[in-house]
Amino acid sequence: MKTGEKVERFIRERRLIGAGDTILLALSGGADSVYLLLLLEKLRGELSFSLHAAHVQHGIRGKEAERDLEFSREIAERFKVPFHGIFVNVPEFSRKHHLGLEEGARLLRYRSLRDCLSEIMDKAPERAGGRGKIAVAQHGNDQAETVLYHLFRGSGLRGLRGMEAEKDGIIRPLLPILKEEILSELSERGIAHREDSTNRDLSYARNRIRERILPEAERLNAGALPHILRTAELIGEAEDLLLERAEEIFGKEGEELLEGGELWGLRISVLSLRPLRPILRRTLLLLMSERLSPGRKDWGAVHFDALDRLLFSGNGAHLDLPEKITADIRGKELRLLRHSEVLSMKGRKKR
Amino acid sequence: MKTGEKVERFIRERRLIGAGDTILLALSGGADSVYLLLLLEKLRGELSFSLHAAHVQHGIRGKEAERDLEFSREIAERFKVPFHGIFVNVPEFSRKHHLGLEEGARLLRYRSLRDCLSEIMDKAPERAGGRGKIAVAQHGNDQAETVLYHLFRGSGLRGLRGMEAEKDGIIRPLLPILKEEILSELSERGIAHREDSTNRDLSYARNRIRERILPEAERLNAGALPHILRTAELIGEAEDLLLERAEEIFGKEGEELLEGGELWGLRISVLSLRPLRPILRRTLLLLMSERLSPGRKDWGAVHFDALDRLLFSGNGAHLDLPEKITADIRGKELRLLRHSEVLSMKGRKKR
Fold it and tell me: A337 touching B, CB under 8 A?
């Protein structure tokens, strides 16, 4: 299958873009985003979405950054895609929020792209029914790096799925294709691009994976990259199945505790959890924690380990968890409760 | 937890050794197998199994191999473990069977260990109730190598589980610990070992993973090795769950076709398979193929792809598969049939 067809099929199968949507492409001027511009430009009529491109200048590099901006503007104009130049000050933002330059750039880039997308959509009320999405040009090589990065850091099955094709309003249509396919398509069509300046943003770890580990893997097996991508997909499917089973079990054995329409706790029979396979039990606990505390940014393996052990404790056992959540065993039931600020203040006064 | 305790718990949890068993340890004289000798020797009274050690001389190296044999004999005798020296001719065997030296050595080594174990058990009829098993000293680093090797080659979820703790009468009690733990235990106790000569048997690919990729991964994250092992475990659990679900579905929707007590085919409703998640459908097809053709050594991804596509074909669709198996769609049913030699000869005569 041709490179463009693979991407088109991926967009259709995952429903990344629908009729009436407004897509803002993050255009760095590098090969990947230039290729994505070409593809989306070709598809916009057929899938009837509105396409814009934005180039974010991070305020880090000088002359070279200006040339990247001008190049991006020219190529967008050449393909008649409305172009937005965005200027941000990453060094200042990073200092102010105590972030590394890379993390600061990432946050500020996405924030400014979202703002730009909102403005575009506000100015086109006739498109009010469609969704707005940011398209980024991460591809199969980036995905393989992500998978290995998570494998070495230990992230559970979730991390091994790699980046999602669509998440939080960001779509990644190039995930099913490889860098070399992008480069050969561009060179075949005689389309110029800038050197991928964003690559230099990437961390030390990512660079080592890209420059040392992946080439070694490809020496061992010429298909190493697609094999890693296929594995990530399989793991994603397996995790989806686990989540589905966990939902099913919670639906049967668990209950939401509501007060005034607000969810303040969950309960589930301990006896229904104990005989489950560890991985399924764990997925169910993960699911429960997510319902109670969406985002769950302070939860780690250590908390799930403790919660899993609690399941095998007797009546009265208690555990404090992140984000003001407590877990208790009460008469053969596990209760996960969210405590409001007031309750926890009361608790403090008593002591 | 101490290294020895981790291994002991692993043996107990996985029930690798039971009372009355006869364990034949493959003792190369390298650090790993010497450490396993010490551990098993310490456990044999408590778990009441009978322990033997065998050293296989491959007939490849000269003087050095003799020294390995003598070292192995001495250390076994020192710990009062009955010792068996086995001599095989790998170069001759490999030539005769058109195998690479490494593959030949592996086959011949396991074959001679099995023969040795049988002889030991024949001579001890009082142990007739116990099982005989071969213990090999592959550890966590070997497991991480295996996982990466399979990740790069593309092996589906099964390969990513790595080596199994017990398979085909071979047990691997050291999988939960790392090489550095083994070396530090041996040095603490002042126990000598030979340089691991088996390492030199290993293929180019394995060597590259061990020497180039794993150290790089550990540079990125000091816990990379345990993280890879934990991931393999999670993937194993997820696959077990998939297999269990697939068994359940086949139990409900499928049927075995028997004649004279012999299984010659399987059938299952196509309509029950089509709506399943691809990974579950695939697992079910894998399960069916294994029932009909245990071992399935000639089956590859391409056959399962074809079989999966067949499910979405109309009545009358047909597919030839490896090992004299055919698949047909007949009135909303998928039938997998095994053809005997006679049937296929008849088929040939007709043409």
Answer: no
